[in-house]
Amino acid sequence: MSPGALYADMAFRRFLRGRVSWDRLEAVFREFATRYEEDALRVTFLDADNWLSVPCVVNDRWFVKVVSEQNSLVHALFTTGRNLGAVSAGTEGFFEHFGTPAEMAAHELDATRKMRELGINAPDPVESFEVDGMGVLVLEYLPSFRTLEDLHPEEASALAPALFGALDTLHAAGLAHGDLRAENVLIREDELYFIDATSVREDGIDGASAYDVACALATLEPIVGAKAAVRAAGTSYDAATLLYAEDFLDFVNLRPDHDFDAAAVKGEIEKAAT
Fold first, then answer.
1. Angle at Cα 244 formed by Cα 241 and Cα 247, nearest 5°?
2. Separation CA 222–CA 151 (nearest Å)
3. CA nearest 185: which of 208, 164, 214, 211?
4. Taking the model in full, what pTM does it have?
5. Residues 269, 187: Cα–Cα separation, whole Å
6. Average of per-residue pLDDT across 143-148
7. For 103-118, how does the pLDDT look when each residue is reduced to its tens digit (9 = 90+)?
8. Residues with Cβ < 8 Å from 12, sequence gap 6 or more?
9. Which of 74-88, 149-163, 179-193, 194-208 is predicted least confidently?
10. pLDDT over threshold 50, residue 254
11. Are 110 and 98 in contact (CB under 8 A)?
């Protein structure tokens, strides 16, 4: 990558992450301390490309996401881009955007509750609330976890069928994750946990399901290889679904949070389908 391209990429990522002023964050945590009757808070901010929130851990007990107006704007931009990608794959757009940061936080709380009701591992949802126009989501903090990208290839291969099995459970219930990537799959005590589900229209579940599968394949390919990723997907999905997912691979490959060999995955899907 040239220096100019590297600078542009860093600037773009800084815009996506955005910043929330310290005085506004202090207002959030003053409200938090009041709500939870805590005399003192120890707040650890997480360093990652978290474009849709400011994530942190409070008192090693709660996982908190502060959603700002800029995070909401970025979500709107991502939603538009993803829907355009869906159109390019031959289907109508199926992602939804929420009008305010508070609505974004409330949706993620509800999505987390639904996943747990289906028996899918997810942090215990606590509550969401609003402070100074920002949405605040509070979840159980899961200590000592790793993300999918932290695993050795052998570990990831062993867990890959469970990843697609959890997605299939979501899809069978008419739900979808919508933002599946390595950072959103946590591993704790050899079990998978989903976080950061987004919103899709009910009438777009077929397309959203195929998109989820494409994102899962894109996430796994750099870790376990295309053949193992497609083989794991085949434990839960038939050839027709895999071929539908193939339509989304080029678009998924354009996302800044996925970097995989789309041609190799397509080749393995074609082999599996025949």
1. 155
2. 11
3. 164
4. 0.82
5. 27
6. 90
7. 989 989 999 999 999 9
8. 256
9. 74-88
10. yes
11. no
Q: Tell me the C-alpha to C-alpha distance, in Å, between residue 16 and each of 22, 45, 71, 119, 172.
A: 18, 17, 8, 33, 33
Which among 204, 136, 212, 133 is positioned nearest to 167, based on CA atoms?
Answer: 212
Please state the rounded mean pLDDT for residues 231-242.
Answer: 97
Structure tokens at 108: 């993620």
Is pLDDT above 50 for 216? yes
CATH topology match: 3-140 vs 146-273: no
CATH architecture for segment(s) 3-140: 2-Layer Sandwich (3.30)
C-alpha dihedral, 13 to 16 to 20 to 25, nearest 10°: -100
**Residue 265 has what DSSP assignment?**
H
Query: How do the domains of the chain map onto residue ranges?
Result: 3-140, 146-273
Q: How far apart are CA 96 and CA 199, in angstroms?
A: 5
Q: Kind and range of the H or E element at 64?
A: strand 62-67
Interatomic CA distance for residues 105 and 125, integer angstroms: 11
pLDDT-based confidence at 124, cuts 50/70/90?
very high
257 burial (CB, 10 Å; 0-12 / 13-18 / 19+) is middle
Contact 176, 210 (CB under 8 A): no
DSSP H helices, the chain, are 3-17, 22-35, 69-88, 101-117, 153-172, 205-224, 226-233, 239-246, 249-254, 262-273
CATH number of 146-273: 1.10.510
- C-alpha distances in Å from residue 182, one per residue of 27, 187, 221: 32, 10, 11
Decide which of 94 and 239 is more confident: 239
Please tell me which residue, 266 or 274, carries the higher pLDDT value. Answer: 266
pLDDT in tens, 53-95: 899 999 999 999 999 998 888 866 766 666 666 666 667 666 6
